[in-house]
């Protein structure tokens, strides 16, 4: 009957592929990957006998033909996606084709570019009492956004935003963020090709965001992070406080907890 694994290949660096993903690529009869998005190094995990198909120019109809072959020839197929397939992975339409064909499938999670970008700038994105929520979104382009999911609406929350697929029109993005409620001095970070050898990082205020992106020449493969949590220290987490008890540890009220960081104290990323 065959099977398809939708495998998250991680943000770029081949060694950020999960152990499970590497194992399944090695077991596959066919490996489908997109050179424009996935590092070629992940192919090192493929079997020497595997058929390698580069899919950059193949539309969904062509991929369906490959899945039909998997059914007819009882093939194991590794469909390798960048990052994690659940985020902007165009995976649901492929799952629907598999189900139409009666082809078994499984999704294998991968390291998201969001995690790689946060690691690149050395930041925790959920800072206590500053930002405890993260909004993952994008600007409308050729793919429209559902009603109520525009950048301005999300900006009203004032928390951390991770904005995908939106570097091509940075001035419009900057305007939407400011008009939605972020202050011009809100800290931002732009991570281009996180974890790739040519990774680049911009850290700036929101009022300089568009100019900095234009100067760098980023139009794609850049994740934009915005929010007060990128530049401010928060209060100390309860998790490691000696005055806080939980199911694994009793409170130790006599132990010195140490000073709280000052509100707004800079905690600059390296």
Core attributes:
270 residues, alpha/beta, Cobalt-precorrin-4 Transmethylase, domain 1, Methyltransferase, Cobalt-precorrin-4 Transmethylase, Domain 2, 2 domains, five-stranded mixed sheet, 7 helices
Describe, in plain words, how this protein is organized in 3D.
Helix content is 24%, strand content 19%. It has 270 residues and is of the alpha/beta class. The strands form 2 sheets. Strands 3-2-4-1-5 form a 5-stranded parallel β-sheet, with helices on both faces. The protein has a 5-stranded mixed β-sheet with strand order 6-7-10-8-9, with helices on both faces. α6 runs antiparallel to α7 (209-216). The model is unreliable at 261-270 (pLDDT under 50).
Which homologous superfamily in CATH is the superfamily of the largest domain? Tetrapyrrole methylase, C-terminal domain
Query: Helix and strand succession?
Result: EHEEHEHEHEHEHEEHE
Question: Whole-number radius of gyration?
Answer: 22 Å
Quote the average pLDDT. 89
Please indicate the count of domains. 2
CATH domain topology of the largest domain? Methyltransferase, Cobalt-precorrin-4 Transmethylase, Domain 2
Q: What gap, in angstroms, lies between the N and C termini?
A: 51 Å
